[in-house]
Design brief:
The protein is α+β, with helices and mostly antiparallel strands. It is about 20% helix and about 30% strand. The chain is built from 17 helices and 46 strands.
């Protein structure tokens, strides 16, 4: 897998101060430091963000010190409006005392932050007996309050039936010297923003999808460089997105209660060098016209008629054609009363992928293969006669004749006519020489593009380029082994994870694009080991809070138009409300996700308790898409009910809610006892029929009584052996299986399953050409066979945990203390992994040299680790001296020899 580009493209957008503040934030770029440094400064987990609304933002840093035992003993934070003063150690809005703590995450607690203001900040850190000072970083506030908007919500007056996307424009004058300029734009739908003829930024699909009538996002752009003295023009193109869903599918998005013609509100706020400000706002003086985007559906595709282009429409010198006059705009009500900042990495075209091959089927049809399955768009460059209609059909696979086959992804589409073909862009040529088309308001899941024209055209392999688009989250983990198949599985897992990270976690990028809750919580650990995704998940949890019913019920897909409140939303799926905040707390050591969602978790658990007072629930879907053995749904969903109650009890303890801690600890124990009483044979150590899922799930989630873990694990290993060391699980069993084995003495068995090449296995997919994870173990399945799903993605997390042994200490989350339990599994000669956690880069790697194993680990500064080495009948040595196999480590790099 080509790694997402995070260096030059992003660094060019950062100020010099930000570059200094973020040193070594890129994966794998930490060099040996001759002296301690403090860097990787972030505000709200973002580097130098602009337009944030958090009244008390979180400030984060990392101590970079490669010496043994490096430890932060104290810190002091400075925040102010003058960068020079802050650099000199003076914070005019907040300056802490010297705080004798090791924490590197603090919540701002100074003077109230003002809107539209840039704040500078730095931190001093005492590293044992040394004082280390960071560079100066910054963050900038946005609206902060609904009352600070000056603009009016406007649209073009058409109704939801109108298919063409609307243009909006306005001219304005600038006569003073500009210090800075920001565009704040809130949209119900999607947008592209232009100033003086140029598109602003490289974001795609802004703003992110929310429950529009309850929360609407706005985006802030730095547009200082795009403005000019004299005449200026601002242009906005609006797309439908999920707001005006014109395509029809089984989830009834076309019947969403919020549905309306797209609308926007914008303030272009200019600050001049003389201290004055000017705001150019959306209002009825703006003019509007229909655009060449004649149809756009986030679910299906986009249609573009180049004959309708209006060159220069977004420039100050534009004069509309006499036969196409622009009309006035109309005022609209705000879609919601909760307009908040979009504080998260945007969706971008992260990778450019040239076509791997082209096949000319005839003079009017060509087939392009980009060589891998992605979420994204294709760009076609072509020359042809005016009016030539070109169709670009996207699919994941080919039929036996070598033509496009959409049968595996089209089953839930319910078109009412033939005007909106699935995953098929339509491009009508203007005839003005070479011209290009790439969708603006759509993405698809595909590997193949079949280009068909109604007239002969000439295309080459270079005529089509694909772009992998997803939330541009920073990679924070790496895995590489001596087994090429396992490496492919890890890469395919990341490809599927990113393909389904589109401002919220989705299930697949082609057939549904839905935020399925079950898929989301199953893949969350996999994602967090490999990518810095906290801001996306925090946004998604806000979506959960928006969608939760007063009685605590959540829908199965989030966000939703209303579908999913009465099917598929039992505890085995909608445990996202507890599992995601808990995982964020575990990975980042930040209690805010627990605080933000605590009442929602409690309301959900209380509702299930009211419905099922015995502790056994039959509300759910069960182990979805199993191989052959069917685990009782009641068993699975009751287990997740236990997980939720247990997380709630632990969260209550962390947040010092003692009465709740006692209450829900007792509830979790009641559920646990009820499950074990009904399903566990204490004499044999077998749950129910002893299937893989039935043995693995209780082990993984902590249901098994302490004295029976060995017996239950042995039965699981035996069952796997009886299944010829192959999987026999659905998605919830797959979440538990590998970890249940490796955590209980059977890592070799887990690895044997993980590295299988025959059906059913992850490797079977790879052997058959997969570059992503599939929806079904059976690649010949007639349904449930999307070729880009993340629901079987736990193997990605297990490669860090089960072989590298990089685990979280629940008592010291955020990898403050790392639990290191590597496994030198048979059949693997070499393994290396790393994870950039809140304190820095953790490395766990090993290799065999004959009968000797060399294990190397790096513990970042300001953290510790408890290392358990699986020595068996051998001994472990550190620097030639016997070390034992349970070792407490301070920060530094260590190499152990096991022989």
């Amino acid at each position: 897998m080509s790694k997402p580009l995070i260096s030059l493209k992003h660094l060019l957008l950062l100020s010099i101060q930000c570059i200094a503040a973020m040193f070594s934030v890129q994966l794998g770029k930490a060099n040996a430091l001759s002296h301690p440094q403090v860097g990787s400064l972030k505000c709200e987990y973002l580097i130098c963000p602009i337009g944030i609304d958090a009244p008390k933002p979180r400030l984060i840093w990392i101590l970079h010190d490669e010496s043994f035992g490096a430890l932060q003993t104290a810190y002091q934070v400075y925040v102010g409006t003058d960068s020079l003063a802050v650099d000199a150690g003076k914070g005019d809005v907040w300056q802490t005392a010297k705080i004798n703590l090791e924490t590197n995450l603090v919540t701002y607690n100074g003077k109230p932050l003002k809107p539209f203001t840039k704040y500078f900040w730095k931190v001093k850190v005492w590293d044992k007996d040394k004082l280390v000072t960071s560079g100066v970083s910054n963050f900038e506030t946005g609206m902060m309050n609904q009352g600070n908007w000056k603009g009016t919500w406007i649209s073009d007056g058409h109704n939801v039936i109108q298919k063409a996307a609307p243009y909006f424009r306005n001219n304005f004058q600038i006569y003073k010297k500009i210090k800075s300029a920001r565009a704040y734009i809130a949209v119900a739908g999607l947008y592209e923003l232009y100033l003086n003829g140029k598109k602003i930024g490289n974001h795609r699909m802004d703003p992110m999808y929310t429950r529009f009538d309850r929360r609407t996002l706005y985006v802030t752009h730095d547009v200082t460089a795009q403005l000019q003295s004299g005449s200026n023009a601002v242009g906005v193109l609006l797309g439908n997105g999920w707001y005006n869903h014109q395509s029809t599918a089984v989830w009834y998005f076309h019947q969403a209660p919020w549905r309306n013609r797209p609308t926007f509100c914008m303030d272009l706020r200019i600050t001049y060098t003389d201290g004055s400000t000017q705001t150019i706002s959306s209002d009825t003086t703006w003019r509007t016209s229909l655009s060449p985007v004649t149809f756009n559906s986030i679910y299906t595709a986009e249609h573009y008629d180049a004959r309708l282009e209006q060159p220069g429409w977004n420039t100050a010198s534009f004069v509309p054609a006499v036969n196409n006059p622009w009309k006035g705009t109309v005022v609209r009500a705000a879609p919601s009363q909760n307009i908040v900042s979009q504080a998260m990495p945007p969706i971008r075209a992260v990778e450019t992928i040239p076509a791997k091959s082209i096949t000319k089927i005839n003079a009017q049809t060509y087939l392009f293969n980009i060589g891998r399955n992605i979420s994204g768009v294709s760009k076609l460059t072509v020359k042809g006669e005016r009016g030539t209609v070109i169709r670009l059909m996207h699919a994941e696979r080919l039929d036996k004749s070598g033509k496009i086959d959409q049968s595996n992804i089209i089953e839930h589409y319910r078109p009412t006519d033939d005007q909106d073909p699935f995953q098929t862009d339509i491009f009508i040529l203007s005839g003005n020489g070479e011209e290009s088309f790439m969708p603006k308001f759509n993405y698809k899941g595909f590997q193949y593009v079949e280009v068909t024209a109604d007239k002969p055209i000439e295309l080459s392999q270079e005529s089509l380029t694909a772009y992998f688009t997803h939330s541009d989250v920073t990679p924070v983990g790496e895995v590489e082994t001596s087994n090429a198949l396992v490496n492919k599985i890890w890469q395919a897992t990341n490809n599927s994870y990113l393909s389904n990270f589109q401002g919220y976690p989705t299930d697949c990028p082609q057939r549904e694009k839905n935020g399925w809750t079950g898929d989301g919580h199953i893949a969350s650990e996999t994602g967090l080991y490999s990518f810095d995704g906290i801001t996306i998940y925090e946004k998604w949890m806000a979506d959960h809070r928006d969608e939760q019913q007063p009685n605590g019920v959540l829908p199965a897909i989030i966000p939703t138009s209303g579908w999913g409140y009465d099917w598929a939303n039992g505890p085995d799926w909608t445990s996202t409300i507890a599992i995601i905040p808990w995982n964020l707390y575990q990975f980042y050591g930040d209690t805010k996700p627990l605080t933000d969602n605590y009442d929602n978790i409690k309301r959900y658990v209380d509702h299930v308790d009211n419905l099922y007072p015995t502790g056994i629930t039959n509300w759910g879907l069960g182990d979805w898409v199993p191989v052959k053995s069917i685990t009782p749904m009641e068993f699975i969903t009751s287990t997740y009910y236990f997980v939720d109650a247990n997380i709630l009890a632990k969260s209550a303890g962390i947040l010092n809610r003692k009465a709740d801690e006692a209450k829900y600890t007792a509830l979790a124990l009641k559920i646990k006892n009820a499950i074990n009483a009904k399903y566990l044979d204490v004499n044999t150590g077998i749950y129910d029929k002893g299937y893989q899922t039935e043995q693995a799930v209780p082990l993984f989630w902590g249901l098994v009584p302490e004295g029976l873990k060995t017996k239950v694990a042995a039965n699981l290993a035996q069952r796997v052996k009886e299944d010829n060391f192959h999987l026999d699980v659905g998605i919830l069993g797959a979440k538990a299986l590998l970890g249940a084995l490796s955590d209980n003495g059977y890592a070799d068995v887990a690895y044997t399953i993980a590295s299988q090449e025959t059906y059913p296995s992850w490797g079977w997919w790879m052997v058959n050409g997969a570059t992503t994870l599939y929806e079904n173990w059976n690649i010949q399945a007639t349904h449930d066979i999307s070729l880009n799903h993340i629901m079987f993605g736990e193997i990605g997390a297990w490669l860090y945990k089960g072989i590298g042994g990089i685990k979280i200490d629940p008592a010291h989350p955020g990898f403050k203390n790392i639990v290191l339990q590597p496994h030198f599994v048979k059949g693997l000669q070499q393994y290396q992994s790393s994870h950039n956690g809140p304190y820095g880069k953790i490395i766990s790697s090993w290799k065999r040299e004959g009968d000797v194993v060399i294990y190397t680990t790096t513990i970042p500064a300001n953290s510790t680790a408890l290392l358990t080495l699986p020595v068996g009948d051998k001994k472990a040595y550190l620097n030639g001296k016997l070390s034992g196999n349970h070792i407490n480590l301070v920060s530094g790099t260590y190499q152990f020899t096991i022989k």
